[in-house]
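S1.2 Input.
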Amino acid sequence: MKKVYVFLADGFEDVEALIPVDVLRRGGVDVTTVSISDFPLVRSAHGVNIEADIMFEEGDFSDADLLFLPGGMPGASNLFDHKGVCKALVDQHMAGRKVAAICASPGVVLAPLGILEGKKATCYPGFEKALADNGATYTGELFTVDGHVTTGEGPAAAFPFAYELLSQLADKQTADQIAEGMRYKHLMA
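S1.3 Output.
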């Protein structure tokens, strides 16, 4: 079973974290939410409290098939300020294993860490300068895949981004079945 860790910081964007967690779990992926704060309870950008599965200090992350960052502000900044998260992301990237981020996180976290250098990526409008300043090419797409890095634009991208991650971790047929079961395909008709 594929293993995913989702890093949650106070101020994370609700749907960007929870839609991918839901879709991946429905698809049979082992997803662990990780609080990077001092408490298991993490407060979203819109005041929703989520209890993470584990605290950062409890995680090893070396078994991760994917490390994932939701966006939101100040969530993305809080992620970047956490040295352990940054080290885990760089280690994952250097090992050629999957990294994903959505909304502000590609520009606020991945780009300054050098993970997007020479890659195509997307992010929430207004953060694209950070991509360019760090050697990435901004696409403006809902989601962009370049090698082992997947980036998403923002809240509206949460479903297609999540199905893309599921297709990478399971397969396209599983992702399509979950999308159909969740009635997502009706939006595309």
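S1.4 Remarks. The mean pLDDT is 97.
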